[in-house]
Write a structure and sequence with these properties.
57% of the residues lie in helices and 8% in strands. With 575 residues, it is an alpha+beta fold. It is elongated, with a radius of gyration of 29 Å.
Length: 575
Amino acid sequence: MSVTVDRQRILRGLGLVALALVTAHFAAIAVDLALHKVFTIDEFQYAHASWAIGRGQVPYRDFFEPHFPLVYQSLAPTWFFVDDDPRNIVLLRGGMLAYLGLGLCAAFTLCVRRGRPLALALLGPIFLLACKPFVVFATEIRHDPAAASLFLAAIAALSLRRAPAWGRAALSGAFLALACWATQKAFFYGLPFAAALLADVVNRGRRPPMLGDPRAFLGGVALVVAPIALWLSVTEAWGEWWRWCVTWAAEYQSRYTELGWMEHVDAILRESWWMVVAAAIGAVAILRREARATPEEASPADQLLVAGLFTSFLSVSVQQAPWGYAFAPFIAIVAVLAARGVALVVEAVAPDRGFGRVWVAATLGLGIALALARSSAGLRELADKRTNKYQLSVLGQVHRLTAPEDVFYDNSGSYVSRPHAYFFFETWNDIRRHEGRRLSEEVPAALRDRGVVAVFEDARADDLPKKLKSYIEVNFQRYSADLRLWGRRLEGLHGVAQIPRDGRYFIEPAEAIEGGMITIDGKIVRTPIVELTRGEHRITNRRPSESTYLLWLPRDGARWRPLAKGRPRFSIHFL
């Protein structure tokens, strides 16, 4: 008897070590993805918003933002400890790993079961990390994966057996409120909590409350909501928050170009079909057990988990434009249910129950191992092939060429840690379509008024209004494929040039000043580099046949020659 027990302990210990190593392997891949994977265009927008908040600006009031700001607010303190080097965006990716870590802890907690080997609980974090459609977005600066982890944590908090009922409830309420402050979508897929709270109120005293202690749950919610309300009041941003995050966001969603969600479901099935099958087994098992359980035996966390599976999918299906990241909460729950389903199958075919079942268990284990190996290879390939090396080199140029106070213009905040020129510092198709006339008039004026010296050409630049594009092409010359710096072509120029700011400018090529052929405000230019004040200056060029420019001299003091053309490749929409 003791030999059998010792053998089982050894096997369980080996299984725990093996799965812990697998967890560490996939966690290392996630860290590698966060640090080295290419940045998608939205991440620059969110990174710049966090920088602006870190510098004291208020979203909605000081700059356009239609999202709830938890991610920005939680990442903003990063900028208190580092300089304004745009390459510090990598640290924000590191901050997002904290949300992923919370989701992994929640997945582990939801998979822990009394009397079940602890090793099997590690399947939850492993499956979450191995699911490419989830981990790709979870290692980016985004709202939805953060909200998914918080939502999962709100469910997991209710399953903490050693904590008192009021503690579980308060923690769950706080996590749920944070999930809602991360994205408006959480209000929809968090509806099971509202239903549970209503059931607890209706059935008070007649059955154990689903939320443990409804008053403590509401107290946890209030613990998060109260500081938010205070912040909105102190910053006087209530009206603007409602305008952009509620009224405008609802209007924008209703008129957005309709996109189908099936293509994303197809991608999930292609990448992780086996996980979906295992999740179905786990969900059915939970529903069967809960249907037979007494109120005292029921597991509210499991009920909310299955209910969240449906509401998170419905949340995506009712959206006008469900992008892949919107599936984050659904995929997170699928991963947890898949781990539960596999654990049930493993228990059903445990090796000590017959020789035939050993083969079944071995086949199951081999199949999962092969699926995980395939996921590992796919994520590794992604980390190696789509790196952010080029993007960081361009951000290094921004740091070298401009000072922290130099104002930039871009559609997506690609400059990260430089001041933006205009309230709508980020625009996309819908904004440009409905606000095109406003952008055409107000953005050029903002570029002049703010003394903008640099412009990014991102993946959205081609869709800018023609008048705005023309203004940029005339007043900003191509420094590289992705960057434009202030400069005017002087061929045939006998008139006024609007100098954006006090500073040093230079004539390119330097030979153009020979013979006193160029004058500024009636004075002959005798040195290539000139000091100019902000405002209008009359410039005359008597060599109209040559390619001559008046250009802004960057922070590094190095003169440059405009490129004739370039193909921007800094930003991409999605992987």
